[in-house]
Sequence to fold (435 residues):
Amino acid sequence: MPEAAEFDALTAEFYEGWLHYHPDLALRAGVPVAGRLLPVQEDEDLVGLKGWLEELLLGLDEIDFHALDADRQLDWELLAGAARVEHRELCGGGWRRRDPLGYLPLAELEWLSGTTDAAPHGTLARLLGELPEHLRQAQVQLRVAAPGLGPLLVRVAAREAQRACEHLRALARGPRPHRDAGGHVGLAEPLESAAAALAGYHHFLTAELAPRARGALGRGVEHLGLRLCEVHFIDCDPAAGCEPITRALERASAALSDADATAGQAPLPADGGYHLAATDAARGHRLPRRFANDASWALGRQLYLGRRGAQGAPGPRLAESRELLLLAQLDLDLHRGRIDDKQALASLARLGLEGPAAEARVAQVARHPGDALAGVLGWRLLEQVRDRQGADAGPGAPAWRALLASYGAIPLPLVLRYGLGQAAWQAAWDAVLGT
Fold:
């Protein structure tokens, strides 16, 4: 079998099985889900997932990478990186079992309950029916892991459970304009049952887990380095020294300080503005890209456009950029063990962000090591490309915007490496790190 066909067959087979373990991700990606809608928790299922990932990695090793075309090479890298990280996490004690927020299907509940389409409401009924048992199993897992849980994560999860409970009870009370059109008709009892399960989960978190939670919030410098390398494709190991990343963040901070003096300027004519948006390019919808981490792409683009004066009023734009930059620094320091949750919250308070909103930001950084850092580094990469190629050829130029969008929302380092070539990518990256 030719290498391309072998890779395509391996990819299709892998995702068919992998989505069985991650039906929530399939739902978010618009992939039809025939069975359960909430992710597996049982030991035998997690063992099966680990074995499935091992089979994929063995299959990828048997494929001649250099015989693949560029699109498949990119997909190979995405697939292999994500599989290595998930496999390592499963072997390392199961972070998901120590994440009380991870058991809450918040995005799915909000999306499914907010649409008027008939088919998704059938899906909502299934999700509501599964939720009580799902949360019961979550309590079993978390009860064992309680001493290692971060107190801040427990508090944030409790607030989100309460919010979801109130949301479902509001739907059950109605009336909503589309109920008579077949929206939530007949769902009052499942909505109340699911809301009661969420209320019970909230009570469990506040009354039983919170007093016992004493764990650190950071995931460790090795895990941060693993995700930077394998998920974000950022070639920098924080375990070996953080000076290059620290220099990059200092340069980013200086760039934002410079922005104070030019905050009112109009964007340059060749800048991208809101046209630097994702398109429905066919290759952007290949499965490895649909499930790729898009933090450097989304946050980097957001910061780049804000710096170029393309998103909103100057004051809020700069404040948001400073917050994202601080979160990147917290990302680095929290997972290196240099700060704890109280110090992280104190840093956010200096920007005027306090209370539940600040705790939610810190929880996001704790749960997704490297994402905030990748966003800031992605922005600096876009700035370097523009500076090196000029306004007519940089990220604001129409041809470059089309190139950026055509790859899909995937890590920016891969877009630059495959779109501009290894030499251009390396030059931009060296400039970001100041090497």
Q: What stands out?
A: The chain has a mean pLDDT of 85. The longest helix spans residues 118-145. Residues 100-209 form one domain.
